[in-house]
Amino acid sequence: MTTQPTTADRMKALFDFDAHLSTDERAWRDKARAVAAEAIAPFIEADFDDKHFRRETFAALAEAGFLGMHISGYGCAGAGAVAYGLVCMELEAVDAGWRTAVSVQGSLAMSAIAKYGSEEQKTTLLPRMAAGELIGCFGLTEPDGGSDPAAMTTFARRDGSDWVLQGTKRWIGLAGLADVAVIWANTDEGVRGFVVPTGTPGFSTTEIDGKLAFRSSRQYEVSLDAVRLPAEALLPGAKGLSGPFGCLNEARYGISWGVMGAARTAIEVAGDYAVAREVFGAPIASRQLIQKRLADMFVEYEKGTLLALHIGRLKDAKSLPYDQISVGKLNNVRSAQVIAASARNILGGEGITDRFPIMRMMANLEAVSTYEGTEEMHTLIIGRALTGLAAFA
Question: Is 163 helix (H, G, I), strand (E, B) or coil?
């Protein structure tokens, strides 16, 4: 009996993406695909329904070397940007909540310490974070200032040799599970970053409930009520908004890859369903309108994947204009949303059930379109690059 090729097989024949990757990059990709299939896929629908963060999955990601994998030294793998992007792609091909958990730990919290921390902070924290022994979070966004971090109201004042933090952060991934938080605050010297043990008196979290996306990960509001820190809690290498933005760009880069994983899954699911589903005596895949949908979805996927690869190659070469990260985030999220919506249409009524992952992915993509910079903000970043004029206000 001859086994019929799947949509995944046909996509690979049409677009041999492996030909663009090194042996090491393919190895990272294959490991991420295996971990996602074994540690995430069997449980994700139930975890999404139950709003359950599976701590043992976090441990599996650490064991695979994914946490802070792009950082060199301190127990981290020192992998290239493309390799990290491929890991993001494979994780989000199953669920965006787990891709964002890796991003919060590695691209945000660990990157802040690696880029701006003291040698003591790096040696004390990074190896344990890479091993998953410590969970980190990154506190920048505030209830009234998501797209305007310059207006943050969280303030750190000096009191002798100590710092005292007062304020509120919101939409902080992993905060209630974290052992250490990187908190950004205004000071009399400008914006500064602080490493805050979450057990410090005055540090508290409230989980954000009622989410209809990212239900397998957790986001929190963080209250900082006279949190007293020693002088050595300051991140010495960060001053001004370039500090947190340097970390946000790492996370945004991962998004441009991750959403193409969700897009690929949507095409595979819709294609297989269209071949198997018969209406009026023939598979719906034999109908012109269905083939047009699938073709349009695939073209957007291939373009987005090649764009992510292009940006990754620039990043590995240390020649990446940061405005290009906005191009990747804006284009690829937008394309993934269109692809997922088309897949849902092909699946018909079944597309809204948890028999297929499409509605879960559509909900997650709605969240991804807003976080790490809204579509409007990335549009204006690109517009500023094209005109030399800022139009944010």
Answer: strand
Lookup: tokens for 173: 């991934």
CA distance linking residue 195 with residue 180, whole number of Å? 7
For residue 170, give both structure tokens: 């919101």
* Number of structural domains found in the chain: 3
Q: Give the residues across from 220 on adjacent strands.
A: 172, 207
- Separation of alpha carbons 375 and 60, rounded Å: 33
Q: Please tell me the distance from the alpha carbon of residue 70 to that of residue 186, in angstroms, as a whole number.
A: 29
Tokens of 104: 């919060």
Amino acid 149: pLDDT? 73
Taking the C-alpha atoms of residue 306 and residue 17, their distance in angstroms, rounded to an integer, is 9
How many whole angstroms separate alpha carbon 317 and alpha carbon 284?
A: 45
In a domain, 47, yes or no: yes
- Residue 75's nearest CA partner among 28, 119, 125, 29 is 125
Could you report the per-residue pLDDT of 302-340, keeping only the tens digit for each? 999 999 999 999 999 999 998 999 999 999 999 999 999
Provide the strand spans (E) within 154-297.
155-159, 162-173, 180-187, 190-197, 203-207, 219-229, 278-279, 282-283
3-state SS assignment for residue 145 = coil
358 and 274 housed in the same domain: yes
DSSP conformation letters of 44-65: HHHHHHHT---HHHHHHHHHTT
Amino acid 103: pLDDT: 95
The pLDDT assigned to 147 comes to 59
Q: Quote the tokens at residue 301.
A: 């996927």
DSSP state for residue 353 in the 8-state scheme? S
208 plus 146 within the same structural domain: yes
Range of the domain at 19: 7-130
In a domain, 393, yes or no: no
pTM over cut 0.85? yes
119 and 219 inside one domain: no
Residue 260 confidence (pLDDT)? 98
Q: What is the pLDDT of residue 146?
A: 66
**Which tokens sit at 217?**
């990960």
Catalytic residue set? 372
Regions of the chain where pLDDT drops below 50? none
